Amino acid sequence: MIFLKLFRESFLFAFDALRQNRLRTLLSLLGVTIGIFTIIAVFSAVDTLRDNLQKSVNKLGSNSVYVEKWPWVSDGEYPWWKFMQRPVSKLKDFNELQRRSQTAAAISYEIGIDNRTIKYGSNTVDGAQVDAATQDHNKTWNFDFQDGRYFTEMESQTGAPVTIIGNDIAENLFPGGTAVGKKIKVMGRYVTIIGVFAKEGKDMLGISADKEVLLTLNFAHNLIDVQNERYRPSIVVRGKDGIPIEEVKGEIKGLMRAIRSLRPGQDDNFALNESTMLSDQLDIVFKIINVAGLIIGLFSILVGGFGIANIMFVSVKERTNIIGIQKSLGAKNYFILLQFLIESIILCLMGGLIGLLLVYGGTFVVKWVADVAVVLYLKNIIIGIGTSVGIGIISGIIPAWFASKLDPVEAIRSN
């Protein structure tokens, strides 16, 4: 209880000293405020980017393998001249994988046809992405429906003239009405809308079904060569639940080598891509950004810490008489030390809170200007506040210790 009472008195002394020197207190806060603001802002920006990009990557499926001509990333050398000579994924590869795979829950063959202009009456949508896929597309990708349904097995097999469109297309072509059951012209043919994808919004990788027009592969097969490289054919394999992705990749690799009759020792002429490749690359980039932001913030805090230490030495010098009187009246060394140490901590804590409030206010500004929701996690708040307290202790301990060791007689006699 005695310690708590002394702590309270030390806090009141410190607070009174800060209140009496408002301008100096404000100037002392700037360095710490800028440093804490930089650290929390960078960490929050990185967390926001990571979350948004991870949402985009999650659409690709955490247990899906993409059999394609080109790899998404490379560990070092990128021999593009070898990749150019590879064949694209063929329907034969797709059919054989369907027949032989034991680890796959679903396999789809998918192509991206082109960006087209879609019209209905006097309404038009430019830049609609026309895609085509086999029946298992709804099992290898993650998406929801706002209205309607997916292709039936019969529609996929017969290449029925039906389509599923994105939310943006539905809103622009049929404002205030329903899109399901209407006919639109795609690739010179009329197709009936049977479903509308749920609104997804823009993401960091540009993966969105909002402006997509999805056809059955067999319908597109009647109009174009779906195995042509210009349509970026891809085989997507979704592994069964409980089976590790590496096991799925291992089986697919062995099957593809057998399907394409590759001899032992011969290089693969296909790439097996997965969403974790992008996640790993993003983690590397974000770690670098985090370190860079931390270094910049620490330099700012270092400058602010020197400023706080300098102000505390000035404060000790100004209050030497008072320290002497306090000690002559029986004040212990730790009471004097706590008095100045608490003052330093309060200064830095105030700077940290102001920096935190600036970041919090900035989240609303970014949301209003760029329509991006910035996340401010509790861990970043704790890092900011903890750093403020740490800087306060480091900056104030030496001046506080110096004040606690003053001789009371010499202190009273000083001017």
UniProtKB/TrEMBL annotation:
Give the record's keywords alphabetically.
Cell membrane, Membrane, Transmembrane, Transmembrane helix
UniProt GO molecular function: transmembrane transporter activity
Q: Which residues form the MacB-like periplasmic core domain?
A: 25-254
Membrane topology according to the record: Multi-pass membrane protein
Task: List the record's Gene Ontology CC terms alphabetically.
Answer: plasma membrane
Instruction: Quote the InterPro entries the UniProt record gives.
Output: ABC3_permease_C (IPR003838), MacB_PCD (IPR025857), Macrolide_Exporter_MacB (IPR050250)
The record's annotation in Pfam families points to:
FtsX (PF02687), MacB_PCD (PF12704)
Cellular localisation: Cell membrane
Span of the secretion signal? Answer: none
Q: In what residue span(s) does the ABC3 transporter permease C-terminal domain sit?
A: 295-408
Which superkingdom heads the taxonomic lineage of this protein's source? Bacteria
For this UniProt entry, which segments traverse the membrane? Answer: 26-46, 288-313, 334-361, 381-403
Q: Which family does it belong to?
A: Belongs to the ABC-4 integral membrane protein family.
Q: Which PANTHER family match?
A: ABC TRANSPORTER PERMEASE YTRF, MEMBRANE COMPONENT OF TRANSPORTER-RELATED
Put simply, this protein is called: FtsX-like permease family protein
Q: What organism does this protein naturally occur in?
A: Mucilaginibacter corticis
Name the lineage: Bacteria, Pseudomonadati, Bacteroidota, Sphingobacteriia, Sphingobacteriales
